[in-house]
Structures are given as C-alpha cells and as structure tokens.
TrEMBL record:
Keywords: Acyltransferase, Cytoplasm, Transferase
Family in the record: Belongs to the acetyltransferase family. RimI subfamily.
Signal peptide range in chain numbering: none
InterPro entries assigned: AcTrfase_RimI/Ard1, Acyl_CoA_acyltransferase, GNAT_dom, YpeA/RimI_acetyltransf
Domain N-acetyltransferase, chain residue ranges per copy: 32-179
Record protein name field: Ribosomal-protein-alanine acetyltransferase
One MF term in the entry's GO annotations: N-acetyltransferase activity
EC number(s) recorded for this UniProt protein: 2.3.1.128
Keyword Metal-binding: no
Length: 190
C-alpha cells in the first residue's frame, strides 16, 4: 500500500534508459568495438575531430568533458578498430525528442556504413525511449551527410544562420518523426 501511495505522489514519468553494454561488431569487414565514451576517450575524440574537420576541433576538451557528465539523459558512444578510434556519436534523449549532438567517422573509415550503423543505433534507442522524433543539425554544404540522413528518413526543417560559430557556416535542422505528428498552429485572437 505504501508503494502505491508513494507512486501516486512521485510518479515515474517516461524514465529514459541510458544503460549501455559494450559489444563487438563486424561492419564491412572491420571488427569494431562499440562502447560508452568516458573522459579517458577525450584525447582520441580530439584527434579524430582534427582528422575529420581539417585540423579544427569544433568541440573542445571542456565541451566533451561537460557532455560526458550528462549521463542521465545523454549517450556518447566511441567505436574502436583495435586501439584506433574510428568513429563516435552522441545524443541527448527526452520523451519529446532525441537530438544527435555529434557524429564523426575517421576519413579512412568513411563510406563503409559505420556512420549509418551509428545513426540507426541512436534511432532505435530513441524508439525504445519513446521519443516523438530524432533531430540534428548538419552543415548546409555537407551534402554527403545530408544524403545519409535523408536515406534514413530525415527531412530538412529550417536553416540556422551562422550556427557553426568557428566557421560562420549555416546549418540545416533535420527531423525524423518516429510518431505521427501535427503541426501546431497558434490561434490568434483579434
């Protein structure tokens, strides 16, 4: 009886499951280890960013450390081939929306379906957590990534001007709806 009484006053609303068990996977002939990112991975994450973004690191050591602390509603995964970091992905989860915050694949491992695999994992996790949609931002000039996201069902939503502050590049917000949705229209009274 006390348990029911307690649940009435303190309901568990849409508990998000952030548990993750590391595993090995063969993607396109590459044996890869997928595991949850920790602070120990930050040096490798920065090196991978430099490779992907032509010497730039859009996310700093502080940015990664800050995001990795948000374990209640975020999941960051790293993908290693032996001792080499080849990809990572991060997302924040809520019942309304799962937002992909970051994804990168090392240039020497691109076009091998690793990025698609990671996106599909996060989309499935969003479904398991009952999110309404998955969203992300992508550079407006990154047509390869846009095609990948479109092939997964994402649709362009709107443009965020100067979203990437380091390069003053615009971003396209893209959304994959997991549940039927309605456009909410504001009612105006005159």
């Amino acid at each position: 009886m006390l348990k029911k009484f307690n649940q009435f006053f303190h309901p568990q609303v849409n508990q998000i499951d952030m548990s993750f068990t590391p595993f090995m996977v063969n993607i396109n002939g590459n044996i890869l280890q997928v595991m949850q990112a920790t602070d120990d991975n930050i040096p490798d994450l920065l090196v991978l960013e430099e490779q992907v973004y032509s010497g730039h690191t859009p996310w700093s050591k502080f940015s990664f450390a800050s995001e990795l602390k948000k374990r209640r509603n975020s999941l960051y995964l790293v993908v290693y081939n032996a001792s080499t970091l080849v990809a990572f992905v991060g997302a924040r989860f809520s019942p309304e929306e799962t937002h992909i915050t970051n994804i990168a694949v090392a240039p020497s491992f691109q076009n091998q379906h690793i990025g698609r695999y990671l996106m599909q994992m996060m989309i499935e996790r969003a479904r398991e957590n009952d999110s309404d949609c998955v969203s992300l931002e992508v550079r407006t000039d990154n047509e390869i990534a846009q095609r990948l996201y479109q092939s997964l069902g994402f649709k362009g939503n709107f443009i965020r001007k100067n979203y990437y502050q380091d390069t003053h590049t615009d971003a396209m917000n893209m959304v994959l709806w997991l549940k039927p949705h309605q456009i909410r229209r504001k009612k105006f009274t005159f």
